[in-house]
Design goal:
Number of helices: 0
Distance between the termini: 35 Å
Strand content: over 45%
Strand order of the largest sheet: 1-2-3-4-5-6
Number of domains: 1
Helix content: under 10%
Number of strands: 6
Shape: elongated
Largest sheet: 6 strands, antiparallel
Amino acid sequence: MAGVTSMGWRKSNGLLPVDVDYDTGFLLASRRLGRGWVTVRHDRFTTGDNSFVVEDDNNEHGTAWTVAIGRQLDPATQVILEYLRVASVRPARATIGDDPQQTQELLQLACRRRF
């Protein structure tokens, strides 16, 4: 997917306070295993800031991996374990003293009950 997102009133030079190009894509593979499943997804993303607001740099690029393992316990109950890892470079992080290149990880367990 690719596109542009913008917001605000145009200045006399035609620039907007928020004007960002984006480009993203993913590959997903999933496999059923009896009453369960395993899903793996790889994402990549890029944003390009075209605005005039220097203090709000929206340039960024990165990748993400998601691995989910789920099991249907009964017709109304699912349990899902999911791991997410996002690695990205966002220069604006330096303005608040953070490293522009970061990796975040999340592990979560969910129980879904339908009623």
